[in-house]
Amino acid sequence: MKRLLIVVDMQNDFIDGALGTKEAEAIVEKVVKKIEEWDGDIVFTLDTHFSDYLSTQEGRNLPVMHCIENTDGWQINGKVKAAAEKKNKTVGMFKKVTFGSAALAEFIKDGNYECAEFIGLCTDICVISNVMVTKAAAPEMPITVDASCCAGVTPQSHKNALEAMKMCQISIVGEE
Asked: What ranges make up the beta strands (E) of the chain?
């Protein structure tokens, strides 16, 4: 079975940087373990902004400089990156300037994957956005989200996003 793991925005700024949370820090080891045990291809998304971020629509609504390309905050967390490099199954890195990546969805649609699983940050913004664009691009492909390897802006918004995805026929595993 051709399987794909999508690791969403496991970047320093979302873990212990500008927009980091204790919930995000708490999933790092779980994400590492998931990558180490994954039997299939792996892709990453990278939230990517530039020096003009505060003048963008997102920047006006969330005026916190984060994930500025080529900064330390933009980089994938070191432990997560090391696990992926050791696994040597990474087949793509998708920079995205907004929450969801149309390029990722097209890659998945065209990749003949039998199923996809999403993990990462933030459940209630970028994870749900990428899950939904993928569902639109590949409506018959089973999609799973491992809740234990995701964190939202708040615990409540994480739960709300999981419930919304369930309503859209996304399988949720790893819930507490």
From this structure: 3-8, 41-47, 90-96, 115-121, 143-151, 171-173
